[in-house]
# Entry
Amino acid sequence: MSSRQLLRITRPTKLELIRLRRRLAVARRIHRILRDRLTLIVQEFFIVVKKLYRMRRELNELLELAYRGYSQAYAFYGHRELSLLSNPLATGVEVYAATRNIVGVRAPLIELKSYPKEHSIVLPPETLTIYRVRARVLELLVSIAELEKELQVLGIEFERTKRRVNMLEHVLIPRILNTIKYLRSKFEEREREEKTRMKRIKTVLTRRRGVAIL
# Structure
């Protein structure tokens, strides 16, 4: 058995064998916990992907509607007038950013905190639809930014957890098992040697007693 497949041990003793058995139980328990966590991360990842897909689809539809409305408003009011009408929309927007815990992963929490209310801005009737679409677009952009960052941190945590699972499954646990097997074979070899030695001693003593009787 190659030394690369074994753990380093100070001395091949029964005490070391007991320690290895305990270490094996702990490694298997951690391996099971990490595999369960890996499953939860994958489930959460696909949930976020589905949410992100729906939001991006809605965003594309709203942007198409908004571009159509802006083109009509631009043709009706002109560049200068439309710029003056849209200036109030550039102020009063606040975004709240924090973090939250998802399956043990620190993920971002981003929310649109405030947005200029419709009654606080004087807009022509032709631009109200654009304003409402723009408000929803901002909400979607904030949510999409949150979900994309969440996907990123979940992906990083998935790779990190997967490496730990693979290390336990393919490196540490096999090495512990091989070391336990190696120690058992050593102990069995010692027992055989001890039995052989005892038999020889017994034979020698028997012969000596026979000679003494004669």
User: Anything to note?
Assistant: The helical segments are 14-86, 125-213. The domain at 11-213 is CATH 1.10.287.3240 (Helix Hairpins).
